[in-house]
Write a structure and sequence with these properties.
Keywords: Membrane, Transmembrane, Transmembrane helix. With about 140 residues, the protein is mainly α. About 75% of the residues lie in helices and about 0% in strands.
Length: about 140
């Protein structure tokens, strides 16, 4: 399998972005120790945002190189290549930003980012999955 230079650059950027997830883990330890005041809703949303960021970034690193193994229409390739990483930004942002402030009792308007991210994830997974199945089938003898 030959990985294209732009794919290599994207994968490097995604791996570097995991450093922000690592710092988010440090933030969570401070919340857990009480050094940063947070109510139950905030704690739950902070944990969910952190977990979604990590899992979706790692999923991106796993899926993106596979797309270099098949010939795909540009639109399918781009949606498959960027849908998951975009979700890795939007979904955690929805969790974190929707509970900012002192003692929020329910998520605020930025919660919509979670649903936009979920749509991006669904489209990215569908494009990558269908693209790989169809592209792989086209390579059969």
């Amino acid at each position: 399998m030959t990985i294209q230079p732009w794919t290599t650059i994207l994968l490097g950027a995604l791996l570097l972005s995991l450093i922000t997830v690592e710092s988010g883990g440090w933030f969570l330890t401070r919340v857990g120790r009480g050094a940063i005041p947070a109510n139950t809703l905030q704690k739950n949303f902070f944990r969910a945002g952190h977990a979604h960021a990590a899992v979706l970034l790692l999923l991106s690193v796993a899926v993106i190189p596979l797309l270099d193994t098949v010939e795909l229409p540009l639109t399918i390739d781009l949606v498959g290549r960027f849908g998951i990483p975009v979700a890795a930004l939007l979904m955690p942002a929805g969790f974190f930003l929707s509970v900012l402030g002192r003692d929020p009792q329910r998520p605020g308007r930025p919660f919509v980012l979670l649903w936009v991210g979920a749509a991006s994830l669904t489209l990215g997974l569908a494009a990558a999955g269908i693209g790989l199945v169809v592209g792989g089938a086209a390579q059969l003898p």
